[in-house]
Amino acid sequence: MSKLTDIRDCIKVKLPKVENTMGNLSAITGEETIPFPIKRVYYLYDVPGGEERGGHAHRGLYQLIVAASGSFDVELFDGKEKKIVSLNRPYDALLMKPGIWRELKNFSSGSICLVLASAAYDELDYIRDLKEFIAYKDA
Ligand code: TYD
Q1: Which of the residues are catalytic?
Q2: E strands present in 60-131
Q3: Which numbered atom of ligand 1 lies nearest the CA of 42?
Q4: Which of 16, 69, 84, 93 is deepest in the core (most CB within 10 A)?
Q5: Would the CB of 52 count as within 6 Å of ligand 1?
Q6: Please, which residues bridge with residue 76 across strands?
Q7: Per-domain residue ranges for the chain?
Q8: Is this structure's pTM higher than 0.90?
Q9: Best of 59, 104, 121, 122 for a ligand 1 pocket test (most atoms within 8 Å of beta carbon)
Q10: Homologous superfamily of 2-138 in CATH?
Q11: What is the pLDDT of residues 39-87, one digit of tens each?
Q12: Is 44 in the pocket of ligand 1 (CB under 6 A)?
């Protein structure tokens, strides 16, 4: 139940890393690596300095967020507590459960935020108003 999730449910996941002097590689092999089926992949790029993304929660969507390049911070809020997760390595990922408000901040220049998601884009899955989110979590 996404109403009941809290920030402790959103954990950092280490992705496998194949090291090579010619460059490293990380693979995400469906449910061997992450606990949901990947239905969509999208990525944020060309984020202007000082700009923030996110500012919403999802009712049912699971996501895995990776700084494929550069770095940024993900600020999580479960209606009661906040925590900030910094992503700055292409082999570190953040598992996002539904029912968590998130804000993405402090993007480094040229960074790429890669997101693997459990469902197709659906605006009805979003809660974009913070007060509405807090009421949803309290209900
Ligand atoms: P949004 O999820 O609000 O972006 P962010 O959380 O990164 O700030 O999406 C921004 C816009 O992009 C919104 O109008 C819908 C569109 N969009 C798609 O068309 N497909 C997608 O998979 C996503 C994530 C967004």
Answers
A1: 56
A2: 63-69, 72-77, 82-87, 92-96, 101-105, 112-117, 126-127
A3: 22
A4: 93
A5: no
A6: 83, 102
A7: 2-138
A8: yes
A9: 121
A10: Jelly Rolls (2.60.120.10)
A11: 999 999 999 999 999 999 999 999 999 999 999 999 999 999 999 999 9
A12: yes
